[in-house]
């Protein structure tokens, strides 16, 4: 890899085999280097290729304003999301995460902290992303010698969620609203207190998130686990109440989103509701 333009000691521009521009970041990676020099690829923290005009300007501004260490912290968070949680994130999330980490550390040093109004929802509906956020703030505290509140774990989780939703941050609020409403229908219709810490409820929420994305954007449908035994119970009519609850949810979705649940949608919704009900009755 050869340097085509030096941005600063920690960043330079090169091109790939298709002559597309690549921005490369690494601590002191371009120090003492010149045009067309080869670089040590072991020093690379992150490459952006190819980048849009909007992202290019944002990255270049950040390179000049933000210490390279924050890029490295963001990369470690993104790598952990990929490796441990199998969450695939876009470069735009990496950029936003780097910027947020830099800002949160600056605020912490001044004793200024923001309240995360979605913290409860993130803990309840996005536990995997919340746990990643908690791991991230411990990493930031260790690397930057600052103490961050739990709210910051929630903000980092939101950036991760945004990446999962295709960088549509507004969708996060809409998904939360959708899950809350469907849960309230189940609670009222089935006359139960839903155990939101249970594995069955977590599976139900995961199903609702995937369903919402399919309903809104026609993404690939995904089902959670082997439900064949539960399907047999439903076919035998053992959980008619759960099916009737699904019909109420179908009516809500039709009125609110103008989307008609098909038989498969109803079946999966019924199965998850039946599981939650059984869990609550046992407790």
TrEMBL record:
Pfam families: CAT_RBD, PRD. PROSITE patterns: PRD_2 (PS51372). GO terms for molecular function: RNA binding. Keywords: Repeat. This is Transcriptional antiterminator. It comes from Companilactobacillus paralimentarius DSM 13238 = JCM 10415. One of its GO terms (biological process) is regulation of DNA-templated transcription. Coiled coil: none annotated. Residues 65-170, 171-283 form the PRD domain.
């Amino acid at each position: 890899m050869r340097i085509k333009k030096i941005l600063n000691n920690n960043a330079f521009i090169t091109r790939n085999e298709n002559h597309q521009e690549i921005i490369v970041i690494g601590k002191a990676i371009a120090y003492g280097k010149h045009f067309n020099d080869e670089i040590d690829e072991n020093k690379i923290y992150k490459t952006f290729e190819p980048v849009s005009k909007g992202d290019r300007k944002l990255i270049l501004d950040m390179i000049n304003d933000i210490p390279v260490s924050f890029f490295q912290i963001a990369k470690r968070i993104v790598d952990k999301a990929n490796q441990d949680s199998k969450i695939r994130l876009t470069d735009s999330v990496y950029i936003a995460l780097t910027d947020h980490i830099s800002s949160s550390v600056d605020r912490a040093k001044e004793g200024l902290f923001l309240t995360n109004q979605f913290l409860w929802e993130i803990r309840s509906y996005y536990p995997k992303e919340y746990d990643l956020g908690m791991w991230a703030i411990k990493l930031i505290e260790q690397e930057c010698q600052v103490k961050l509140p739990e709210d910051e774990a929630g903000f980092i989780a939101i950036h991760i969620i945004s990446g999962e939703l295709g960088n549509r941050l507004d969708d996060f609020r809409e998904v939360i609203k959708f899950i809350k409403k469907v849960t309230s229908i189940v609670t009222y219709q089935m006359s139960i207190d839903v155990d939101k810490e249970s594995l069955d409820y977590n599976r139900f929420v995961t199903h609702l998130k995937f369903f919402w994305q399919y309903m809104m954007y026609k993404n690939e449908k995904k089902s959670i686990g082997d439900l064949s035994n539960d399907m047999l119970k439903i076919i035998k009519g053992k959980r008619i109440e759960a099916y009737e609850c699904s019909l109420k949810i179908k009516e809500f979705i039709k009125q609110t989103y103008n989307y008609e649940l098909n038989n498969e949608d109803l079946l999966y919704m019924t199965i998850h509701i039946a599981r939650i009900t059984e869990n609550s009755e046992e407790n």
